[in-house]
């Protein structure tokens, strides 16, 4: 089982990307995990042996407490926060200043070197806003990772994208490329690859609706939460979902996970 | 129509997916699957208590059906009417337990007292086991109480969630004019 514990901090988002797993948008219910719950669960996770944390959504930085929550978690274990990269105003960057030097990475979505290609799936002006924000985060001393979600990236398109992220101050080691997963809005739009539990590394994922097999689990389609990768509704104490996912992992053949390199 | 959405095989959570692998697992499983960590332990409990044990299956169905009748659980009454038929109770016996016919002489004294015990468990549980003492040892009394209590839990669960009976059950009841 993966050592990272994930949190779905919230489900709402200022964007409504075409392949969003959770059908997030400004209009959906927040379904937020209270910051105090995230911190309490993270504290418990350390005792259970988890080695790092991930925060995703929705857009986590829509939550005013998020910089403080991330700093608290980083005092326990390394943290990666997934963000659409469009909310990093001067004010938010000032609030992120305490993260400099902490074991924190903000993973920003950028799908193409071509603004037109990127923005078609994400939002108008998204490319411009993200490529402006990344160097500012880097300058603020925050480690930035770039996640590219793509239906297919040929060598030339990939090289141009890599040249772009290098120019923004992000190394090749901090660039991940993964396929569109056919869940949530991607499934409605006929995008991506089908996945089952065996294709996904088991990484316990806590949401307001329960604990899931992986951060690709608590997806929403037709405004209905998918339960096929639900582990338990109980999230606290964390030992309950942790024990349940361990029971599920037991007996899996070695190497059955990560078949599609979806991480 | 049930009071909640019933989970189908495509949405079956990991801990309880095996219950869906053989086809439609029934409304009770499809409802409990919403909370897999409860479903995971409740189904073996229900299966153990209501399945084969040291008590005669016919006696157990007297308790389960009568408890469900007194508890006014339509789902459980319908489902266990069929189970009772399949457990060797006659049409007259089942009709009596359902409160629709006089008690036939074919019931044993224990079975009659077991039906009375089921009524008392709803009406006045203190001392309800007294009617069983002339017939059963302590371990069997405990099992009868567990059986009846589990049935009462299921009665409330199935009624509150307005679970629909299986089509096969509905068809057999219809064929019998029920």
Please describe the topology of this protein.
The complex is a heterodimer of chains A (263) and B (178).
Chain A: E1 4-8, H1 35-48, E2 52-56, H2 66-74, E3 79-83, H3 90-96, E4 104-109, H4 115-121, H5 126-139, E5 143-150, H6 155-167, E6 175-179, H7 184-188, E7 205-207, E8 210-212, E9 220-221, E10 224-225, E11 230-232, H8 239-249
Parallel strand pairs in A: 1-2, 1-7, 2-3, 3-4, 4-5, 5-6
Antiparallel strand pairs in A: 7-8, 8-11, 9-10
Chain B: H1 27-32, H2 36-50, H3 57-70, H4 74-86, H5 91-97, H6 109-123, H7 138-160, H8 167-175
Helix/strand-derived category of chain A reads alpha/beta
Assigned CATH architecture of chain A: Alpha-Beta Barrel
Total beta strands of chain A: 11
Identify low-pLDDT runs of chain B: none
From the alpha carbons, calculate the radius of gyration of chain A and give it in angstroms. 17 Å
Average pLDDT of chain A: 94
Based on helices, strands and strand pairing, what is the structural class of chain B? mainly alpha
Number of strands of chain B: 0
Tell me the name of the CATH class of chain A. Alpha Beta
- Taken as a percent bin, the fraction of beta residues of chain B is under 5%
CATH superfamily of chain A: Aldolase class I
Strand content of chain A: 15-25%
Integer count of domains of chain A: 1
Number of helices of chain A: 8
The stretches of 5 or more residues of chain A where confidence is low (pLDDT under 50) are: none
Distance between the termini of chain A: 13 Å
Radius of gyration of chain B: 17 Å
Order of helices and strands of chain B: HHHHHHHH
